[in-house]
Write a structure and sequence with these properties.
With 224 residues, this protein is mainly alpha-helical. The chain contains nine helices and no strands.
């Protein structure tokens, strides 16, 4: 009876997901998010794109330029996120194993550095992480490989640029084509909302910061 009861209790530490699965799921969600933003932006563009040339103002042309640029950023972001997810799906077993090893090594080095900073006042020094092996590839080859990796991980950056272009287009349209009160309210709303997505990016990889954030989230327990 005791063993059955013990087995029914869920572990506080669930089985860890693989690095490959986490990255793949992230890019799948990113492709969905970029597609959603692009759809919204295409709907917003209908308010300014259909204006006759004779009625266009310089401000309206600037709005259309930002809207179109943002739409291109969003579409390319969605397409690249899909390509990256598909690329990750097509990795062989050996390549996935290599991904797990190098990602885990990078994670271990960050964790060791964080532990060393947290225990700086302890008498014994922590074991330093093993330094990465020297890269003996030619410089041109390293640049090409860095370009490949940057292309795979570019979707999030492109999506941010797309959202920024859309927001700038909103503000120009409000100040140029709408009453003053509308422009002021929209600017205040945008300024008040910016800190929230910026805060998510600023959390970073610091383990101590993440633990403090998790402690604060635990008080909510999913009740927003």
């Amino acid at each position: 009876m005791g063993s059955k009861t013990q087995e029914s209790i869920p572990s506080a530490y669930p089985r860890r997901q693989t690095h490959h699965g986490v990255v793949l799921k992230g890019f799948e969600l990113l492709a969905l998010a970029a597609t959603f933003v692009a759809a919204i932006q295409s709907q917003v563009m209908s308010t300014t794109i259909g204006v006759a040339r004779s009625d266009e103002t310089p401000a309206l042309r600037a709005v259309n330029a930002f809207y179109l640029s943002g739409l291109v950023f969003d579409l390319v972001s969605a397409f690249l996120a899909f390509l990256t997810a598909r690329w990750l799906q097509r990795l062989t077993d050996e390549e996935r194993a290599h991904l797990e090893v190098v990602f885990e090594q990078s994670h271990s080095r960050r964790f060791t550095r964080a532990s060393a900073d947290a225990e700086a006042d302890v008498e014994h020094d922590p074991q330093p992480p093993a330094p990465p092996l020297p890269d003996k590839r030619p410089f041109v080859v390293r640049c090409i490989h860095a370009y490949f990796a940057s292309s795979l991980f570019a979707p999030m950056t492109l999506l941010v640029f797309g959202v920024i272009c859309m927001a700038v287009g909103f503000l120009i349209f409000a100040w140029a084509e709408q009453p003053l009160v509308v422009a002021i309210v929209l600017t205040a709303v945008c300024a008040g909302l910016v800190p929230f997505p910026v805060g998510v990016f600023l959390i970073g990889r610091n383990s101590a910061t993440r633990r403090r954030v998790i402690d604060l989230l635990s008080r909510k327990q999913g009740d927003w």
